[in-house]
Amino acid sequence: MATTAEHSKLFTKIYFWLLVVVQSTLFLPVKINTYAIVILTLFWLVHSFGTPGKLVANRSLWLFVLFFFSFVIGLFYTTNLTQGASEIEKRSALAILPLIILTCKISLSKDQLQKLILYFFYAGLVVSLGLLTFAFYRYQTGFSADVFYYRELTNIIRHHPVYYSYYLLFGLLARFLILFRTHHKKLVFWIINIFGVTILVLLASKMVVSLLVIITIFLLFTYFRSTGVYYKLVAGVLLVLLISGSFVFFPQVRGKATDMLHLSMNDLKQEKYAYNYPFNGLNFRLVLWKLSIQHLYNDRLLWFGVGTGDARDYLNEVYAQHGLLDGGYINYNTHNEYVETLVRHGLAGLFFLFSVYLWGFYKGFSHKNFFLIIFLLIFAISSWSEASLSVNKGIVFFSLYFPLLLLIGKKQL
């Protein structure tokens, strides 16, 4: 008969590999990832109530519980309860994943937590190789070179290229921290890094490329401060060459990047927009932010917003008044999590969201947990251009890695 120790070892392996599956399927369509979370939840229920001992919750769990219940509170002053219930269901991962990770009776080792991050990045590389292979096949059969870039690259897996690149960016930087000291002299280590950066460039997210530069500079003068000037210079030169080279060799990337320079104040001054108005990405976002905040102020909704279920309807009304619905922008979010939170929960909700980020940064810096700092930098800064906590791919990424990285901090990685 198997001993208690053998059972414990088996459960630990199952839990570890279920987490690997959940995080790896983030690179795949939403339904596949949802099935993986359901299986992980069932395992947690069986293990929690089928093994001896009480559930002991990490104190950090309260932060996630309160964050989830802020959306529940928003139901009390919402009109569209059906949509509100749908929004709560979409954000259920905010409660479920932290509950599993921060109450599980299985404690993962420092080595296992490191491997989770590495496997996440490698899963992204494998999927990226598949995407490039399919893109090459399409190119050979007569499609244009656009199949290698942005939406065309990730269309086959029905994945938004921006969120895909956020995952890859986090995995790339975290792997660099884990392996640099032991692998920095190995050619394979640098080849994989260059391949990862190349994929990020092909995905052509202006925000992600900017984040790569910002976080790399931050790490060079914090985490790598003791490694000497030589490695800092090498890393800095490689980064500059990779980024600048992307604009030379990939015209599609160059086009998206120069888009940022075409800021038109006329777009912001207008009150009505004709059908097929020629927005670029930055101007379109600025217009949405301006109109949303302007209407919230005029309607005296700045303090508490419109409620969990009414944000989409309210924004559609705003867009309709300014001709944007005629351009096909129905049910569009504001492409900014802070503005989206302002619409849904007002300044009160925005204050709480900032408190969550600040608490995470406090934990990260106080424990010198650079993994958590990198994750929060990516999430907090990217939230200026995407409604990261309003879509499944952002919600699950936040709900999975925030609590996991808190545990990594406790292990003093």
Short description:
This protein is an all-alpha fold.
Describe the structure in your own words.
This protein is an all-alpha fold and 413 residues long. 71% of the residues lie in helices and 0% in strands. The protein contains 18 helices and no strands. It has helices spanning 4-24, 30-50, 61-73, 81-90, 93-103, 110-140, 150-154, 161-183, 187-203, 206-220, 229-249, 251-258, 265-269, 281-298, 311-321, 337-366, 370-382, 392-410. Helix 1 (4-24) runs parallel beside helix 6 (110-140) and helix 10 (206-220) runs antiparallel to helix 11. The mean pLDDT is 87.
**Proportion in helices:** over 70%
Give the structural class: mainly alpha
Count of alpha/pi helices:
18
Whole-number radius of gyration?
Answer: 22 Å
Strand content: under 5%
SSE pattern, N- to C-terminal: HHHHHHHHHHHHHHHHHH
Characterize the largest beta sheet: strand count, sense, and whether it forms a barrel: none
The end-to-end span amounts to 36 Å
The whole-number mean of residue pLDDT values reads: 87
Shape: globular
Task: Point out poorly predicted stretches.
Answer: none
Q: Could you give the count of β-strands?
A: 0
SSE blueprint:
Elements: H1 4-24, H2 30-50, H3 61-73, H4 81-90, H5 93-103, H6 110-140, H7 150-154, H8 161-183, H9 187-203, H10 206-220, H11 229-249, H12 251-258, H13 265-269, H14 281-298, H15 311-321, H16 337-366, H17 370-382, H18 392-410
Helix pairs in contact: 1-2, 1-6, 3-5, 3-16, 5-18, 6-8, 8-9, 8-10, 8-17, 10-11, 10-17, 11-12, 16-17, 17-18
